[in-house]
C-alpha cells in the first residue's frame, strides 16, 4: 500500500529527531543506473528492511522526469522519506517528500551557486515539496558532478578550506553540509576532514562518494558524519550495502 506524502512528518524534523539518537544511512538511487525497473522494488524492500532512513533519488546525467516519477512511485511503498538529490532543475517532482535545496558552494559558475535555485524555488513552492537547505561541497575526486558543476574541487587533505566553507554554510543558515567525493570515487571523504569540521562548526554533515565497505563507513560515521550515503555499492553488491546499513545503525550519537 502506498503512503501519502501528508502522512509523513516533516522530513527535516524526522531527520533531526532520528539523528539525535544515531548516525543515519541514506540510500542513493540513481535513475540512470537502474537497468531493470522491475528489480527496484526488491532492492528497495531489502534496503528498507535493513533500516536505511531515507531514499535519495538523483543523478547527474541521463535522468528524465518520467523515469524520476516512476522510481518515486515505486519507493512510495515504504514508510521512509523520498528525497530528491537534484543535479539541475529538471529533477523536481511533486511525488517527492522533500528535496535537498543545494547550493554548490565551490562552483566557479554562479548558476550552480544561486542561479538554478532561483529558477527552482517557485516550482518547489508551487508543488509543495519540502526544501532542505544544504550546502554542497565537492571534495577530492569530484567525478561527473564536479565536472558538470564546474567546481574548484577541494583536496582531500585541505582541512582549513573545508572548515571555512562549513562555517560559511552554517552562518548562511544551511541545515546540512553535503561532502561529496564524487560517484565512483577511488577514495572517500577523509575522516580527519570531518573531525576538523565538527570541531569548529555545528552544521550537520552528510558524507557520500567512494564508501564501499563497512570499515570505511564506520570510520566516517565515528569521525562525526551525521548521515552516510551509499549509492554504487547498492547496485554492485546489495548484500554488502545491507551490512553497511546494519553497522551504521548501531553507531550512537554522543
From TrEMBL:
InterPro entries: Dihydroorotate_DH_CS (IPR001295), GGGP/HepGP_synthase_I (IPR039074), GGGP/HepGP_synthase_sf (IPR038597), GGGP_HepGP_synthase (IPR008205), GGGP_synth (IPR010946). The lineage of its organism: Archaea, Thermoproteota, Thermoprotei, Sulfolobales, Sulfolobaceae. Keywords: Cytoplasm, Lipid biosynthesis, Lipid metabolism, Magnesium, Metal-binding, Phospholipid biosynthesis, Phospholipid metabolism, Transferase. Prenyltransferase that catalyzes the transfer of the geranylgeranyl moiety of geranylgeranyl diphosphate (GGPP) to the C3 hydroxyl of sn-glycerol-1-phosphate (G1P). This reaction is the first ether-bond-formation step in the biosynthesis of archaeal membrane lipids. Mg(2+) binds at residues 30, 60. Its EC number is 2.5.1.41. Belongs to the GGGP/HepGP synthase family. Group II subfamily. It comes from Acidianus manzaensis. This is Geranylgeranylglyceryl phosphate synthase. Pathway: Membrane lipid metabolism; glycerophospholipid metabolism.
